[in-house]
Amino acid sequence: MNRSQLREILDILHEKVGVEFIHYHKDAVINAITKECVNDDVDDYIEQLKINDNLVNRLASKILVGVTRFFRNPQFFETLKQHIPHKGFLRFWVVGCATGEEAYSLAIILEELGCNYKIIATDVSMDRVVQAHVGLYGNGIVSDISKERLERFFIRTSRGYQVKGLRHNITFKTHELFEDDAIEDIDVILCRNVLVYFDHFNYDYLYDKFYSSLNDEGLLCVGQIEQVKSSLFEKVDECIYRKI
Ligand SMILES: C[S@@+](CC[C@H](N)C(=O)[O-])C[C@H]1O[C@@H](n2cnc3c(N)ncnc32)[C@H](O)[C@@H]1O
User: Fold this and answer.
1) pLDDT bracket for residue 39 (50, 70, 90)
2) 98-133: buried (b, 16+ CB within 10 Å) or exposed (e) per residue?
3) Residue ranges of the CheR-type methyltransferase domain (predicted)?
4) How confident is the model at residue 128 (pLDDT cuts 50, 70, 90)?
5) Three-state DSSP class for residue 185
6) Fewest Cβ atoms closer than 10 Å to its Cβ: which of 114, 144, 173, 239?
7) Ligand 1: does its nearest atom lie under 6 Å from the Cβ of 98?
8) Which atom of ligand 1 is closest in space to residue 98's alpha carbon?
9) Atom of ligand 1 nearest to the CA of 223
10) Helix, coil or strand: residue 25
11) How far is the CA of 199 from the centre of ligand 1 (A)?
12) Consecutive H or E run containing 105
């Protein structure tokens, strides 16, 4: 695939999905395109993308990796408990919430701690946001959630487990990290396993955005393989940084 073909595909994606994939690792984007372009004819694939929105959405969803699970990196949630600010009411922003498992995991620990809170959970993918809002998960979640938590926070249905009693404190909505304004008045941001997909040159722009979103001494939490390298934040624990 040559540069102009790649540029044309990125333009189609931007126009139809609203995401500027230039921010993502180039190799990952090319890899996804190569897998989707089954007959190796890139010009033909571009023509198909122009007329077939399903193909465009498939490609976008392949680049926007949505892998997630309840209590991903369980140690993180234990560590976070020790750093949750002491305030009467707390506001959380879960960035790149995918299908909702992370936001519900957070809500579970906040319920257990007896906190008053609001979680705003956002993702660029409308399909994932809708799934997150429905909160219905396959039986496989039993390997990530204790029996006690399943009984307290989920209802068993014929199609799997559906969250109960958590959704009233969570708003799921679409939000594009680069294009849309920061969500304001936030005490803790979880942006885990999202930064890793972006090219490093975009990080400062995002740190500025998170900085403006956070209240004084607010926390920015990232994934296990991610780091915040910015003079705007200091590390307070594994995966947890504080606004300076
Ligand atoms: C690998 S999932 C991580 C889910 C969850 N945070 C976790 O750690 O399990 C990454 C999510 O980030 C979302 N995402 C990627 N780029 C984004 C952007 N520019 N704006 C908002 N969300 C984005 C993707 O749609 C995907 O659902």
Assistant:
1) confident
2) bbbbbbbbbbbbbbeeebebbbbbbbbbeebbebbb
3) 1-228
4) very high
5) coil
6) 114
7) yes
8) 27
9) 8
10) coil
11) 14
12) helix 101-113
Cβ of 211: how many Cβ atoms within 10 Å? 17
CA distances in angstroms from 135 to 10, 110, 114, 166, listed in the order given: 32, 18, 22, 10
Closest CA to 92 of 116, 76, 126: 116
Structure tokens at 101: 């498992």
Check if the beta carbon of residue 170 is closer than 8 Å to that of residue 133.
no
100 touches ligand 1 (CB under 6 Å): no
pLDDT tens-digit readout, 62-71: 999 999 999 9
Residue with CA nearest ligand 1 atom 15: 64
- Structure tokens that stand for 9 in this block: 């595909």
| pLDDT at position 142 | 97
User: What are residue 186's DSSP bridge partners?
Assistant: 214
